[in-house]
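Hello forum,

I keep getting stuck at the same step: I have a sequence, I want structure tokens, and every attempt I make locally crashes halfway through. Rather than fight my setup again tonight, could one of you with a working pipeline run this one for me? It's a single chain of 409 residues.
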Amino acid sequence: MKNKQVTFMLVGLSFLLMLGFSAQALAGETYPIALSLAITGPTSDVGSPYSKGVEDYCKYVNDEKLLGDDKLECFIRDDGYKTEVTKRNFEDFLDEKIVFYLNYSTGSTMAMRKDFDEEKIPTLPASFHAGNLVDSTYVFLPISSYSSQAVGLAEYVAANHKGSGKPKVALFLHPSAFGRAPRDDVKKAIAAGLNIDLVEIVEHGKDLDNTAMLQRFKSKGVQYVISQTVQPPVATMLKGAQSLGMIAKTYGEAGKITFLGCHYAGGPDLIGLAGSAAENYYWTTSYKLMTAPGPGTDAQLALAKRYGRDEKVAQSQNYTNGIMVVQVAVEAMRRAKTKGKKVTRASLYEEMLAMNGYNAFYPLTTVGPVTFSKTDREGVDTLQLYVAKDGVFHELGLPFASEYVKKIK
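Reply #2:
Ran it on my machine without issues. Output:
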């Protein structure tokens, strides 16, 4: 009798184990990805909505079964914008067997390029610094680089300047590799024939009073200022310019200054910081804003609502940015699965490099397709110009690509 009971127990245990294995098979695979970024500390105004975009789209992928029975697992950690913390986070993420990595800052991406190559892991940073691609194989930029953006803005200035002579331009830069990124490329574009006069290059400090700088700009006849930095110092500069009566009410207004900026130097949050001083501010990015109606913007607003995000987050281009990098990772996974490949770092890298021509990816969160290849790891090549009117950024003209960037590459 006792032997029979043992036999029944063993049969029962085998049955339960079979059920467990069957349930695992039905559940599918899990693909870990990870993100380290500044949710707190410097640039947290960017990092916070960015992290929410990543988190929400990962949830959406699983809730809507975009990968079938397979799941996306996303590890997100705050690094406070400190490279040493980012590196520790990345090392911990490797223990989780991640197949795709989302980095954040320029400094940490530059410092860890060799690590990404050594681990052979495809990496999309929030930094659009063209230098991230130098001496690197596995780093990809989501959209046009800061250099492409700044040169594109300078081209717009040259093409639309109505005064006599060359337009006089100043660069307002963040005092870091992130800020300096486009400086040399703007100079190269000028050497290649771009018709502007680069009067001054300023690396801003933490000053709350830009009066001396602005008056110096005026004395040198500066007509346009192109910013490559983050929103708070731009807001401070615009408020100072407004108090001095220097802001052009129309593009290129004689005797005034027209202000322009690259991706992180503008957007809806800038209006919140600068108020009316942001009026007539020109700004470029490769992302679609929520003021441009269409299926992509409708989907983003619905996503934010679905996961309980407030209006400020829903409208942020950095929420869009976070969504988009996960879209690219998931698309690479989907393509690998469609071809019968196992989803690994190697197969995702192959799919990233093949994302061009007829295989370009259209995520609807950007103003152009995402394209990568062995010789071009800079994602969306097109830019959209926006201008702030009545407290809102609106599209101005059609998406464009910088011509001089092609000449100086």
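The chain has two domains: 28-144+292-376, 147-285+386-408. If your local run keeps crashing, start a new thread with the error log.
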